[in-house]
Write a structure and sequence with these properties.
4 helices
Length: about 130
């Protein structure tokens, strides 16, 4: 079952995709990139904050410094790859436009939200499967 945070993550992915970075001023685009980076880092921190199961079935929390390191790593990765993501976004948008899609930005946003939900559902399914085999 998908959680509320899974739905929020999917809505966030879709909402972020509604923005066309090519139409932003350089200053606003920098803010957009930083916002995506901050949201990704916060999401990584939240995910890392969930206790992990140990060998005995107990729950072991990850220390805050480790959660911070994970979030920093995600932030660096996202910020380092955001320009490539913008190029891929532009190419996808242009391809959809050339093929007659009337609202390509909406199609990309819905696609991003659906893919996010699908990945979360697969992850939950894998966790359930792993729990059964322990």
């Amino acid at each position: 079952m998908l959680s509320r945070s899974d739905l929020v993550m999917a809505l966030g992915a879709g909402a972020a995709t509604l923005v066309d970075p090519r139409r932003l001023s350089p200053r606003t685009r920098r803010g957009y990139r930083l916002g995506l980076t901050a949201l990704s880092a916060a999401g990584a921190y939240q995910i890392a904050a969930q206790p992990q199961k140990d060998e005995d079935g107990g729950e072991v929390p990850l220390p805050p410094v480790a959660r911070g390191a994970i979030a920093a790593g995600v932030a660096a990765t996202v910020y380092g790859s955001v320009r490539l993501g913008e190029r891929l976004d532009a190419a996808s948008f242009d391809w959809l436009t050339r093929h007659g899609v009337k609202h390509p930005r909406v199609v990309l946003a819905v696609g991003g939200a659906v893919l996010t939900l699908a990945m979360n559902a697969l992850e939950k399914r894998q966790e359930k499967s792993d729990a059964v085999t322990r």
